[in-house]
Amino acid sequence: MFRYKKGLLLALVVLGLGACKIKPEVPQNKPLLVASSTFTSYSDSTQKEIPNIGTFFADSTLSALIDTALNNNFDLQVAMQRVEVARAGIRFSRGLGIPEVSAGVVAGGKKFGDYTIDGVGNYDTQFSTNLNDKQSIPQPFIPDYMLGLQSSWEVDVWGKLKSQKKAALARFLSSEFGKNLVQTQLVSEIADAYFELLILDNELDFLEENIKLQQFSLDIVRVMKQAGEANQLGVELLKAQLLSSAAMKVEVNQQIIQNESRINFLMGRYPQPIKRPKFAWEKVIPPTLSAGVPSGLLKNRPDIRQAELELQARNADLYTAKAAFYPSFNINANLGLQSFKALLLLNPASAAYGLAGSLMAPIANRRALAADLMASRAEQKTAYIGYQKSIVNAFTEVYNYLYLIKTNADIYKLKSEEVNTLKNSIGISTDLFRSGRATYLEVITAQKNALQSQIELINVKKKQYNAVVGLYRALGGGWK
C-alpha cells in the first residue's frame, strides 16, 4: 500500500510540474516599419512571382554558364555542407526526449580493505550457514560480471527539449535559405560579368572604328604636310590621339580577360575563353522586370527568410536557457544478469534490475545559468534587430534599383542622341578640313568628343544591365 502511495505522490508531482508553463519572452523593440503598398509612384505592382533564371535571362549561353556554376561553385558547395551540418543537428534533436537504451558487457573487480565495511562484511558472510557453495564470495579479489541493458530518460516537463528541437529545425531551414542566398548572389554575379562581356565586345568594336578613322585622318594630314598645307604639330597631335585609342583598346582587352576569369572562377574552373555570341549594339537590350509589391519580399528574399528563422531559433534558445533554472526529472533503469562468478552469469538466479527517479534543481552557484540566460536574451534581441534590418534593407535596395533603371533609361536616350550628333560632326569636320575651311584641331576635337561620348554610352549600358540584374536579385530571384 505504501508503494502505491509513493507512486501516486510522484505522479502528482510530475503532473503539477507539467501544469507550470514558462512564459515566452518577446523582445522589447520598436515595431517593424510599415511599408507602402508600392515601392515607388511608378512601379508596377501586378507582378506576383519572380521569373526563374531561364525565363528571365532568356540566353542559352548564359543559362549554360549558370547551370555549370550551380554545380561547381566553391561557395555554394560550402553552403551545402553547412546545410548537412544543420541536418545532422536535426537528427540529433530527434533523439531528445526519448529514453536512451544501451546494451553492454561489463567485467571488473574490487579488493576491499580489511578495515572497511565492505571488507569486514564480505569476510563475515563466509561463515553464514544460509549460503551455498555458489554464493560464497571469492577472496580477496571479488570479480564483477554484468550482461544487460541500461536506460536513462529525461522527462521533458518544461518543454526544454522541445524548444531545442525547434531551434535545430529553425537552424536547418535557415541554412537552406543561406544556401539559397549564396545561389542568388552567384546567379547575379555571373549575369553581371556575362553582360559586361557583351558590352565590352561592343566597346572594342567602337574603338576599332575610331582607330580606323583616326588613322585615316593622320594619313590625310601627313599628305597635306608634304604638300605644304599642314605642319608637323598636326601630325603629332593626331598620332597622339591614335596612340591613346590604341592604349584604350588594350585596356578593354584586359577587362575582357578579367571578366572571363571572374566567370570561370565562379564556375569552379581555371581561366579559359568564354564562348559567347556577338550581338549588334542595338540588340544588346537588358531584360525587363516589374517590381511587384513589397510584401512579396517576405517570401522571395532568402536573406529575410534566413533572418526570420534565425530569430525563431534564438527564441527557442532563450526558452531553453530559462527552463534550465527549473528542476529536471530523470528516470534511470537497468536490467540484466550480474554475478561475481563468470560460470554463474547466465544462471537465471543472476537476474538483476534497478529503477530510480530523480528530481534535481540548481540551487547554489547558478552563475553559469544566469550568464547563459543573459547571452541568450542579447542574441535574441540581436536576431530581432537583424530581421528588421534585412526587411528595411531589401525594401531600400528595390527602391534604389527602380529609380536607377528609370534614370539610366533617360540618360541612355540622351546619350544616344549625343553620340549620333558627334558621329556626324566627324564627317563634317573631315570634309571641311579637306576643303581648307576647318583646322586639324577641329578634326581632333570632333573625333575625341565622339569617342568619349561612345565610351560614356557604353558605361550607361553597363549600368542598365547592372541595375536590372540588381533588381532581380533584390526581389529575391535566382534561387527557386
UniProtKB/TrEMBL annotation:
Keywords: Lipoprotein, Membrane, Palmitate, Transmembrane, Transmembrane beta strand. InterPro entries: MdtP/NodT-like (IPR010131), OMP_efflux (IPR003423). The keyword Cell inner membrane does not apply. SUPFAM superfamilies: Outer membrane efflux proteins (OEP). Coiled coil: none annotated. It is found in: Cell membrane. It is a lipid-anchor. Belongs to the outer membrane factor (OMF) (TC 1.B.17) family. This is Efflux transporter outer membrane subunit. It comes from Flectobacillus roseus.
